[in-house]
Amino acid sequence: MAYRMIWNQTAYFGAGSIEVIPGELARRGFRKAFVVSDQVLVDTGVTGRVTALLDAAQFPYEVFSDVLPNPPIEKVQAGVAAFGAAGADVLIAVGGGSPQDTCKAIGIIVANPEFSDVRSLEGVAPTKNPSVPIIAVPTTAGTASETTINYVITDVERQRKFVCVDPHDIPVLAVVDSEMMASAPRGLKVATGLDALTHAIEGYITRGAWELSDLFHLKAITTIAGSLKAAADGDPEAAERMALGQYVAGMGYSNVGLGLVHAMAHPLGAFYSAPHGVANGVLLAPVMAFNAENSGERYRDIAVAFGVADAATMPLDEVRVAAVEAVAELTRELGNPTTLGEIGAREEDLPALAQAAFDDVCAGGNPREATVTQIEELYRSIL
Ligand SMILES: NC(=O)c1ccc[n+]([C@@H]2O[C@H](COP(=O)([O-])OP(=O)(O)OC[C@H]3O[C@@H](n4cnc5c(N)ncnc54)[C@H](O)[C@@H]3O)[C@@H](O)[C@H]2O)c1
Ligand SMILES: [Fe+2]
């Protein structure tokens, strides 16, 4: 058995750490940057914090801000065309998962033009060349896309969201600066934080989990459980811990996979444009309950990480229930929706949603095998 682990070549952490970007660009010999962001971030001045540093260093760049949440194929193709026209040699992604993922797809297609239809990148794509070098600056805490080998694109025409797994896409440099995340509204901090918690928990119980990935996921669960609420309420120290916690979760799950929560969340993004983190938040506790009997002693560790009293000594069946309840309680306290109806799901769509979740690449990592009918029942139970 060979266990593969892939992480960023270089990563910086800490409030204000974006200041390293001009020096890193110069040191690596780049000449022009193509900044991939979105219009909200441009309008609110978040992207401008990075471009101001480029201006001050007189480093040439162009900004591509035509990215949408649940990023569609068409915006990737527009980005590839704009990159070609710009004559840039490095990509800088400034944004949440959507700009990060759009940027990865652009970088991969520029280096591997035979995949310009985008759809053929689904799953493990046999690309030959590494992406155009990417510097990733996340503005949510978050997807950890800055350190994962994945990106997620939406096929609007076919109502599908698909995951692409490709080590060639990993950013050469990640700059995890909690100040870049500070302007996110509370609801966004809650949703993206629940996404990070889902990565940590699904990564901890996924089929491919092993000693080294456990290290990251356990640390991430403890960090996120202890800081998400305060970070959402605007505490800068908690925000710093969330920035780290979400990244550490990414160091794990990117290498070992996820499970049914992500498989079931992706169709909700494709059908109803549900924000990814909100969808995960609705699904996490119910899917944990579904997986409980296939999780060995791992829910005890989760309960301990959440600070559940007596979790270390409680009988196994009780501690499993306590772990699920701790996650459900946090989700309620944060004010995330707890039913699918709140994000627009409709009874008549459930069979199609269940089939899409069953076919999703993340489903294979789930510790308990689930049939299409069981997935449909799971959706129905929280409609
Ligand atoms: N590549 C991966 O490994 C990976 C992992 C998990 C999720 N994802 C994908 O990432 C996407 C979700 O990303 P996300 O949750 O980070 O959100 P997002 O990038 O879709 O952004 C959502 C909204 O928040 C705004 N926003 C982002 N940062 C902000 C800030 N600092 N201040 C104010 N507004 C801000 C954006 O402008 C946008 O309007 C989904 O498509 C999901 O499938 C990818
Ligand atoms: Fe996610």
From TrEMBL:
- The residues the entry assigns to the signal sequence are none
Coiled-coil region(s) at which residues?
none
List GO molecular-function terms, semicolon-separated: lactaldehyde reductase activity
Q: Which Gene3D superfamilies match?
A: 3.40.50.1970, Dehydroquinate synthase-like - alpha domain
InterPro entries membership: ADH_Fe/GldA, ADH_Fe_C, ADH_Fe_CS, Alcohol_dehydrogenase_Fe, Lactal_redase
Its keywords, alphabetically, are: Oxidoreductase
Q: Which domain of life is it from?
A: Bacteria
EC identifiers of the protein: 1.1.1.77
Please report the stretch or stretches of sequence annotated as the Fe-containing alcohol dehydrogenase-like C-terminal domain.
190-382
Please list the residue ranges annotated as the Alcohol dehydrogenase iron-type/glycerol dehydrogenase GldA domain: 10-177
Protein name, entry field: Lactaldehyde reductase
Give the species. Kineosporia corallincola
